[in-house]
Amino acid sequence: MAAISGITSHLSFTVLRKLLSLPSMLTTHFVRSTSSQPDLQAIRDELEKFQGGSVDLEMDDQSGIAIMMLNNPKRLNSLTGKMMVDMANHITALEKWSLGKGLVLVGASGNFCSGGDLTFVRKALHYGEEMAAFQHDTLTRLLNLPLVSVALLQGHTLGGGAELSTACDFRVMSSSARLGFVQIKMGLTTGWGATTRLVHLFGRQKALGLLTSAKVFSAEEAEKEGLVDHVLSYALQPEEELSVCKNWLASNYCGYDADLTQAVKSSVVHCDLSGDLIESLRNERRVFGQFWGGSAQRVALEAKIKHK
Ligand SMILES: CC[C@H](C(=O)O)C(=O)SCCNC(=O)CCNC(=O)[C@H](O)C(C)(C)COP(=O)(O)OP(=O)(O)OC[C@H]1O[C@@H](n2cnc3c(N)ncnc32)[C@H](O)[C@@H]1OP(=O)(O)O
Asked: Residue with the nearest Cα to atom 43 of ligand 1?
């Protein structure tokens, strides 16, 4: 959304926005359908019946970085209903993790995720909008976690797997991996919110191209298109790539106190969601006031840091 300066422009924008009743691009709360409010608890109970695989979470208080692993390797980590519920539960735990700074979303056995588990998909053809409602809520919460998140794309990242990758702040890709939004080839549009996130991430034209072409990108092509933030060296083995990705996250984006890292991410999310510059600046001032004169600032001043 183009930057708007000045109070008057802002007021006219706010009025225009209300007149056009433009929906905010992303919301902190699950986007409620006009027809009814999905009962997420009932959907959770139903999805849980579709067993297979798991999503596992390791939270390392020492480093402040958690690893969330999609664990259905015989089926290339495609997601069953039970795995969707596992992921939602882990995100609830991460929302409360006071020592958290970062999250790596990875698939087991050197493969990210090849989308919805087609056995689950075939059994749940009556349950599409409910599944989508649950996944929209989960992936919006994932994207808005007060942590810096990165998806490690190895092997195949297809369909819903590609959608999962858009619900992280960054994407790191293995040099031999492939990434594609193939839903249109499956007779579908996106079911887990990626259309909204792709337009927000890359703009309308690029989002439209990704979704209508169903192109499957190599790592080199994905990097050239700006779809991923870093491509790993060819020399690495799959098991080495997770450790390299965790170090990439730690050294680039999780080098400072957890409370500061969480405050910065939360302010970025607040601005992104509010679509109201005055409100966002008000929130930013409130957060700034929490740290000004605090211990971290006093230690930094004492250290006479030179930012060379
Ligand atoms: C909202 C979600 C969205 C939707 O529902 O609309 C979707 O994500 S739909 C699913 C989109 N994904 C796919 O269509 C991927 C289908 N699979 C493939 O294209 C290939 O498996 C590929 C390219 C990922 C890998 O091919 P390769 O030849 O290297 O391996 P295999 O095909 O032999 O796969 C190994 C093993 O994994 C099983 N598998 C792979 N993907 C899925 C999946 N999505 N669901 C369930 N099982 C999957 C595959 O069947 C093989 O198992 P096997 O027992 O040997 O048959």
From this structure: 117
Q: Using 50, 70 and 90 to split pLDDT, how confident is the model at 19?
A: very low
Q: Is the pLDDT of residue 31 over 70?
A: no
Can you list the alpha helix ranges (DSSP code H) found in the chain? Answer: 7-20, 40-47, 81-95, 118-123, 128-143, 160-165, 194-202, 204-213, 219-224, 238-253, 258-274, 277-291, 295-303
- Residue 189 confidence (pLDDT) above 80: yes
**What is the CB-side half-sphere exposure of residue 297 using CA atoms within 13 A?**
7
Residue 247 and residue 263: Cα distance in Å, rounded?
22
Ligand 1 pocket test: which of 83, 112, 114 has the largest number of ligand atoms within 8 Å of its C-beta? Answer: 114
Which residue's CA is the nearest one to ligand 1's atom 52?
Answer: 75
The sign of the torsion formed by the CA atoms of 105, 108, 113, 116 equals negative
Closest atom of ligand 1 to CA, residue 119: 46
In this predicted structure, what is the pLDDT of residue 24? 45
* 179 CA to centre of ligand 1 in angstroms: 13
Taking residues 202-228, report their average pLDDT.
98
Residue 1 belongs to what H/E stretch?
A: none
Ligand 1 atom having least distance to the Cα of 121: 5
Closest CA to 126 of 217, 232, 50, 65: 50
